[in-house]
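<backbone_tokenisation>
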Amino acid sequence: MTKFIIVRHGQSEANLKELYAGRFDAPLTEIGRKQAELVTEYVMKTYQVHAVYSSPLLRARETVKKIAELAGVPLQICEGIAEIYGGEWEGKTLPEIAKNYTKDALIWKNDIGNARPTGGESFAEVQARADKALREIAKSHDNENVVIGTHGGVIRSMQCLFENQPIGYMKDIDWQPNASVSEVNFENGRYTPVKMGYTGHLEGLITLLANL
């Protein structure tokens, strides 16, 4: 069995400015850096960490890099767990998106799992590549605990798989708070969620923002 300790990145500058940030590479805010400290402390107290993988995006790397350092393992970059590519929406505000991409934005609002940002990828595609990445990681880390530094959209799309639901179910799943922790076991080709979106370590510094 492989235990995935899935960490959503801390609050980013794009979150703060309410910009759509799929691959838009924004750093953490001051609050986000504090959240990263708190999640690092929690993970190191709660788990024996054998490996740490991160999305290539700065906000994810900044959130989990200290975990890797304290665990004495390399921070390994994994393209498969990067956030959704938002195409023409990248770096824009929601009002801008709603005004300029009305049809696609309406689908996104009503059925996010089956939607596609204009010129970007769908969450079905995100789910497929993230699932492939986690399965590959599990092959190298049997009987180990692996930290995954990733993003709200990735986690939300994968939660459909964790709960044996179609991607259309994504609209009924809440966004995970920044710097939350989800624990998921993977064994015999199956995911078993233990807890999702845990925030008990954040000491009131809970920010709940979508992939904006």
About this structure: The mean pLDDT is 95.
